[in-house]
Amino acid sequence: NNTLVALPIVAIENILSFMSYDEISQLRLVCKRMDLVCQRMLNQGFLKVERYHNLCQKQVKAQLPRRESERRNHSLARHADILAAVETRLSLLNMTFMKYVDSNLCCFIPGKVIDEIYRVLRYVNSTRAPQRAHEVLQELRDISSMAMEYFDEKIVPILKRKLPGS
């Protein structure tokens, strides 16, 4: 069998690593083996974006003055605001999905959200004077809110029946 899914999982993951997380999430429909590989990559992708965010936040905080009054006028104030808002989003996503991911009932489903968080973090890292936080984060807020609402309304009722002790 000379198909992609016949390759070792490490090889498949290496090939898929060149794709966006949204594309990876769509590949889950191909077959059961691809679904398992993609689920694993999505879960790892969420954990990686959390670590990348922590690194970005640590780097910015290290350059900010200690006094809160001096921080508002600092050149990295908007960077810090954006990263704080991303931290809130990550926390909400974590609370929504990870209980079920940790119970092996599902994976971190919205690959598009991971892609958008990476886009925001790369923007913050590469821009000296970023736009205001609400402008930078509009798309992330929209798609993550939609993903969490859909998950809570449509998927959680199904998963709750599968939870141990239900």
Automatic annotation (TrEMBL):
It holds the Pfam family F-box. Residues 1-49 form the F-box domain. PROSITE patterns: FBOX (PS50181). GO terms for biological process: protein polyubiquitination. It comes from the Eukaryota. InterPro entries: F-box-like_dom_sf (IPR036047), F-box_dom (IPR001810), FBXO28 (IPR039719). SUPFAM superfamilies: F-box domain. This is F-box protein 28.
